[in-house]
Amino acid sequence: MFPSRLRTGWWLSRILVLTAVLIGLSAVPTTAQTEVRPAALDYQLYTLDNGLTVILSEDHSTPIVHLQLVYHVGSKNERPGRTGFAHLFEHMMFKGSHNVRSDSHLSLISQVGGDGNGYTTEDTTTFLETVPAQYLPLVLWLEADRMATLRIDERTFEAEREVVKEERRWRYEDTPFGLLTELMYGQAYSVHPYKHSAIGSMEDLEAASVEDVQEFYDTYYVPENATLVLVGDFETPRALALVKQYFDRVQKARRPVPRDIEREPTQTEERRVTLTQSQNWPLPTVLVAHHITYDGHPDAYPLHIAAKVLSDGQSSRIYRRLVYENQLAVSAFGNGSLIEDPNLFYAVSVVQPGRTTTDSEKALIGELDRLKTELISEQELQQAKNQFARDYVFGRLTVEQKASHLAHAAVIHDDVTTVDAEFDVFMNVSREDVRRVAQTYFTKENRLILTILPQASVGRSFLRSGGSQ
Amino acid sequence: MKLAISQPVTIILLAFLLLVVSVPTVAQRSTDWPRESPPPPLPAKAATFPHYEIRNLDNGLQVVLVKHHEQPAVNLRLMIGAGSASDPEGKSGVAALTGQLLAQGTTDLGATEIAEKVDAVGGVLDVGAGTELSFVNVLVMTDSFEFGIDLVGDIARNPSFTQAEIDRQRQQVLSGLRVSYDDPGYLAGVVFGRLVYGEHPYGMPPNGTPESVQQITRDDLQAFHNAYYAPNNALLAVVGDIDVDEAFLEVERVFGDWAQKAMPAVREMEMLQPAHRVVVVDKPGSLQTAIRVGHVALPRVSPDYQAFDVAIKILGGEGGNRLGSVLRTERSLTYSASADFVSRRFGGDFMGKTETRSAATAEVLRLMVDEVARLRGERVSPRELENAQAYLAGSFPLAIETPNAIAAQVLESLLYGLDLDDLPRYPNRINQLTVNDIQQVTQMYLQPESLSIVLVGEASAFLSDLQAAGFKDVEVMSIEDLDLESVDF
Question: Between chains, do B119 and A138 touch, taking CB under 8 Å as contact?
C-alpha cells in the first residue's frame, strides 16, 4: 500500500530470475503471422480551460474505475544537486492537502475497497487509484485537492526524506546488482539528466529543502502539465461533469512549464570502464550500451524488434548463444530503453562462474554486429511481430493497463492516437529496417563497455562443495 | 532501549498533536479552496462472481473453464498437487528442478524445439514448483489454442529428463543460489522457514541448497514425476477467449488417455509448537537489516482461517497495517513494513517483515514484537476492524477483473477442498466478523513470547543493542556456515 515504485525495478527482477529456463534454436519451423488483433480502445479526449488534459474510456466489463493522473515531470527535470527530488516530491503528495490529513489519502481509498499508489520515472510522475465504480467522485476529489492545495511542513518533509533514504538502501544499495542501472547511466551520459537515477544520491536527498518543494510544486504540479485518464465503468457525460466539477476550480499555471533539458552531445569514441563493487555484486557483469533515439522516432520500432530478436524468449539469439549453448552467462539479455529523450540500447551478461568477462563481451558484441551485417530471417521477423502482438494483447487486460497506454500515448508521444496506431507501425517493420537501425546505432564509437567486478576478497566458500566450474 | 508498551501510545499522541497544531510552511496555491468532506459515492453497482464451469474427466482431472472474450488470448494453467514439500529427505530442490526440466525436452520434442515453437507463435511458457504444487502455464493467442493445449499435455506427461539438460539446469540453479546467498531478503526468508517449521518439509528451502542440488540425480526427477504427475492429482484451468464446450473437447482429446496413478501416502507431519529463537545471519557491510518475526499458524481449511487472516491484515496488510503506521508513518524507520499469513494444507505461518538501517535494528525489532503482543493483548478497535473489512469486502470487484484472477480463486478452493459457494459470499463472510472473533483467534494462536526472529545484516552494528532491548540468547551465524538442510538447524 505504500506509494512509490521506481521504474528501474524490472531490471532487477529480470536479473534475479536466474532459474529461468534456457533454450536454444536449431531447426527452422515456418512461422505464420498471428491473425489476432486486439480491439482498439474507445476513448474521448478533452482539455479543460486550465489546461488539464482529460481522457475518458468507458469499459463496462467489471464495476470498477481506474484513475491515472500523470504529471509530465520526472527525474530528468531535476536541477543539478537535487537528484532524486522528483521521486521525493511524489512521496510528499501523500502528506496531506487542504481537506486531506497527512497519510490519509491511501486510507480513504482503502476504506472503500480501492488500491492507490504512485511512481516516478525519468520522464513522468504518476498517481493512480482503482476503486469500485461508485467511488469515482472520491478519487477525483482527492487528486484535485492535492493538485491545488498540497500542504507541507518542515517536520513532515524531513521525516519523509528518511523514508526515501531507506528505500534507496533497500532497493538499490543492499540488493544484489541493485546499482546496475545507476552505474551504467552514470558512465554512459555526460550532461543529460538521464545520467542520474530516479532515486537520486544520498547527498542530494540530504540537501533538498522545503523551499525546493514549493518551487517544484509551483513549476510542475499545474493542470497544463497533467493528464488525467479514467478507464472503467462510467457514463462519459457523467464522468466528464464530475471531472469538471473538481478540476475546473484548480487555478491555471502562472508561467509556462520549462522544458529546457540539456542535450547529450554525440559520443565520438568508445568508452571502456571497469568498476569494482565491494558489496552486493555476486558475479562479474558485462554491459554493452549504445546511445539510441527517443520513443516515437521512426527508428524506435525496428529497435524494439531488434531487442526481441536478441532476447525475447528462450530461442532468442542472446539467450541461445550466451546462456544455453556456450554457458557463458547465468543471465543475459538485451533491451532498447526507448523513452522521451534519446536513451540506451544495452546488452547485459551476468557471467557464469568459471567463465570470463572477455568471452561475454565478445559474444554480446558479436550478436550486435551480426544485426548489422546479416538480415534477420523472415522467421525471426515474424516471430518478433507475433511476440509484439502478444505483448499488446496481454498488456491491455486491466483498466490500469489500458489507462497506462492511453497516458503514455498522450504524454510521451503527445498524440493519443498512437495508442492504437503503433500496432500497424510494428507490423510494417521490415528486415532491412532492423539492419539499418543496427548500422546506425550499434557502432564502436557510440558504445560503452562497462565491466563490473565483485571485490576479489569476498568469500564464496559456501559453494566449496561445487558449483563453479 | 527502554521502550515500554506505553511509549508508542505517547508517541502517537505526540505525533497527532504536532500534526494538528503545526502550521504549514508551504502555502496552498488556491486561496479560495473550499473546506470540504469527501464526496458521497454514486449509486453502487452490483458485483457478482463471474460465471465459470468445472468439469471432470473420467481419469480424475478437474477442469476449470472461464470464458472471457475481451482479448483474443487464452491462458492454460495445469497445477500438480505436489511441490517442494514432497521433496525426498536430504534432497531439497527435486520438485523445483523437476518442474524446470519439463520445458527442457519431451520424448517428441527437444528443448530447442519447444522454445522455437512457443516463441514462433508469440506464446509464453512458464514452469516450476511451489511448496504444495507444481505448474505448467501457457499463454497463447486464440489462433494458437490447439498448439498451446498440445504443448501443456506433452510437457506435463512426457518429459525426457536428458542428462545434458539436467546438468545445464543444475548449473543455473547453483549460480542462482550464489546470487541468492548475497540477498538479505532471500536469506531471511529461508532461515525463517527453518526456524518456524523445523524439520517439516514446509521449512526446507524450495530451490534446495548448494549441497543438495549437487546430489539430485536423473532418477530423483523421474521418480518425482512418476509419483505425482497424474490426472487424479491435477487441476487444469482454461481461461479466456474460448467456447467452453469446444475447449472441453480439446481437453478430453489431449488428457483423456492420461492414466490415473495411486498417490504416495501423504507425509502428514505435525506442526512444531512455536519456540522462541533469535538468529542473526551476519552479513558484514550491509547498510540495512532484514527483519522477520513470526511463528506457525493454522492450516488453510481451519474454520478460524478468515478471522486470523483479518487479524494479520490489521497487523500488517491492506486495509490496516499497524506495522506500517508505527515504523514508517510515525518514525520513518523503514520504507516498507508488512505482515503476511501463508496457510497451507497442514499448517501455515504468519510473518512480520521489514528492512531498516542497521543502527535502528533493535528499536525496530522491539516495536515489531510489541505490536504482535498488542494484537494479542488488546482488543482491536471497532474502527480498525471496520476499515479492514471495508477494504477486504469492498475490493471484491477489483479481485474479479481478469479471467485469470477468477480462475486463481477457483483453483485455490479446489486445491484445498474449500466450499466453492463461498467465493461469491466472500464480502459477507468478511463483514460478519466481530471484534470478539478477532480477539478469540489472536488469543488462541498468537504466542508473542515464542516468536521466531531472523535478522540478516551487519551483526556488529546492533548485537549489543539487542541485549539492551531485551533480546537474550541471540545466535549469530555466518553465511559461510549456513547449513539450511541440517536436522537440528
Answer: no
User: Does the pLDDT value for residue A299 go beyond 80?
Assistant: yes
In 3-state terms, what secondary structure has residue A331? strand
Q: Where are the domains of chain B?
A: 53-255, 277-478
Provide the pLDDT confidence category of residue A1 given band limits of 50, 70 and 90: very low
Smallest Cβ distance to B29: which of A112, A149, A210?
Answer: A149
pLDDT tens, position by position, B267-292: 777 778 888 999 999 999 999 999 99
**What is the least distance, in Å, from the CA of B53 to any CA of chain A?**
19
- Check residue B28 and give its pLDDT: 54
Residues on chain A touching B73 (C-beta within 8 angstroms): 36, 390, 393-394
Cα(B423)–Cα(B411) distance, integer angstroms:
11
Asked whether the beta carbons of residue A137 and residue B42 sit closer than 8 angstroms, the reply is yes
CB A319 within 8 A of CB A309: no
Distance from the B400 Cα atom to the nearest Cα atom in chain A, whole angstroms: 8
Predicted confidence (pLDDT) per residue in A125-145, tens digit: 999 999 999 999 999 999 999
**Phi, psi of B31, deg, nearest 5:** -75, -25
- List the one residue out of B101, B98, B102 whose CA is nearest residue B88: B98
| Contact present, B182 and B482 (Cβ < 8 Å) | no
A156: closest chain B residue by CA: B19
Which pLDDT tens digit goes with each residue over B150-188? 999 999 999 999 999 999 999 999 999 999 999 999 999
d(CA A75, CA A6): 10
Q: Are strands B124-129 and B277-282 parallel, antiparallel or unpaired?
A: unpaired
Report the b/e string of B235-258 with b at 16+ CB within 10 A. bbbbbbbbebeebbebbeebbeeb
User: Which has more confidence, B264 or B148?
Assistant: B148
Instruction: Tell me the nearest-neighbour CA distance from B208 into chain A, angstroms.
Output: 12
**Per-window interface: A 205-234 vs B, CB < 8 A:** 210, 213-214, 217-218, 233
Q: Nearest CA to CA, how far is A124 from chain B (Å)? A: 21
Contact A193, A76 (CB under 8 A): yes
Out of A24, A99, A396, the one facing B35 most closely (by C-beta) is A99
How far apart (Å, rounded) are the C-alpha atoms in residues A29 and B391? 50
Amino acid at site A9: G
The CATH homologous superfamily to which domain B53-255 belongs is Metalloenzyme, LuxS/M16 peptidase-like (3.30.830.10)
Q: Which residues of A touch B69 (CB under 8 A)?
A: none
Shared domain for A243 and A338, answered yes or no, is no
Alpha-carbon gap, residue A397 to A61, rounded angstroms: 11
- At A327, which amino acid appears? Q
Domain at B277-478, CATH homologous superfamily: Metalloenzyme, LuxS/M16 peptidase-like (3.30.830.10)
| Domain boundary residue, one of A247, A281, A298 | A247
Q: Does A467 touch chain B (CB under 8 A)?
A: yes
E-strand stretches of B68-178 = 73-80, 124-129, 134-141
The DSSP code sequence of B44-75 is P----PPP-EEEE-TTS-EEEEEE--SSSEEE
Residues B208 and A424: their CA atoms lie apart, in Å, by 47
> What ipTM was assigned to the predicted interfaces of this complex?
0.91
A1 touches chain B (CB under 8 A): yes
Number of domains into which chain A is organized = 2
Residues of B in contact with A111 (CB under 8 A): 319, 387, 390-391, 394
Of chain A residues 87-146, which have a CB less than 8 A from chain B?
97-99, 101-103, 107-108, 110-115, 130, 132-138, 141-142, 145
A296 and A239 in one domain? no
User: Strands across the sheet with A226-232, in order?
Assistant: A44-47, A53-58, A226-232, A64-71, A125-132, A115-120
Indicate the residue of A63, A159, A387 with minimum beta-carbon distance to B332.
Answer: A159
Q: Cell digits for A252? A: 491555471
